[in-house]
Amino acid sequence: MGILAKLLKALNSDSSPWQLAFGFTLGMIMGLTPILGLHSLILVFVVLFFRVNISSFLVAWALFALFTLPLDSLMASIGESLLTTESLQPFWTALYSSTFGQLTQFYHTLTLGSLIFTLLLSPVLLFASKYLVIQYRVKVMVWVNKIKLVQFIKGSNFYRLYQALGE
Amino acid sequence: MKNIIRWPGLIAFVLITGSIAAIIILFFDFWIKLAAQKGLEVATGAEVNISAVEHTFSPFGVSLIDVQLTDPNKPATNQIQAAKISADIELSPLLLRKVIIDNLIVSGVQFGTERAREGEVFRKTNAQGERSVLEELFPNKEDLPSVDEVLARSPLKTTKAIEEVQAAYDRHKEGIATQYKNLPSKDKLAEYKKQIEALSKANYKNPSELLAAKEKFDLLKQEIRADKQILTDFKDSVSQAKQELSPKIAQLKAAPGQDYEQLKALVAGDAGAISDVTTMVFGEKAAQWAEYGLAAFDIVAPMLKNKEQQSEEAVSAGRWLSFDDESGLPELWIKNADISVSWQQENLLSVWHDITYQHDIIGRATTFKVDSSKSKLWQSFKLNGDFWLKENGILAQQNWQLAGLKLDNIDLVNQDKLSSKLLTGLMSSNGSIKVKENTVIGDGVINLTSLTMQAQGSNKMTNIVANTLNQLEQLSINSDVGGVIGDLDLSFSSDLNRQLGSALLANIGKEEQGKLDELKAKLNTQMQAALGSQDAQLGEWLDWEKLADGDISSLEEMLNSKMNNAIDNKKDELKDKLKGKLFGG
Question: Residue by residue, what is the 3-state secondary structure of B312-362?
Answer without folding.
Answer: HCCCCCCCECCCCCCCCCCCEEEEEEEEEEEECCEEEEEEEEEECCCHHHH
